[in-house]
Amino acid sequence: MEHMANSSLAALFGVECFAWYWSWAVPSNSLKFEAGEFVIN
């Protein structure tokens, strides 16, 4: 039972992190792509 609770908590935490990252990444997508190309080149 405890393991199930821990995995549920981890899943919820992962979703929260993904939502936060997505909300941050989408507005700055073009900037990130330019920075990525600069690093690659």
What would you report as the Rg, rounded to the nearest angstrom? 16 Å
Give the low-pLDDT segments: none
Which percent range fits the helix content? over 70%
The helix/strand order is HH
Total number of helical segments? 2
Tally the beta strands. Answer: 0
Q: What is the approximate shape?
A: elongated
Q: Gap between N and C termini, in Å?
A: 50 Å
Query: Which band does the percent of strand residues land in?
Result: under 5%
**Which structural class should the secondary elements be placed in?**
mainly alpha
Largest sheet: none
**Total individual domains:** 1
Mean pLDDT: 70
Task: Break the fold down into its secondary structure elements and pairings.
Elements: H1 2-25, H2 29-40
Salient structural properties:
41 residues, mainly alpha, 0% strand
Question: What report would you give on this structure?
Answer:
The chain has 41 residues and is mainly alpha-helical. The protein has one domain (2-40). 88% of the residues lie in helices and 0% in strands. The protein contains two helices and no strands. The model has no long low-confidence stretch (mean pLDDT 70).
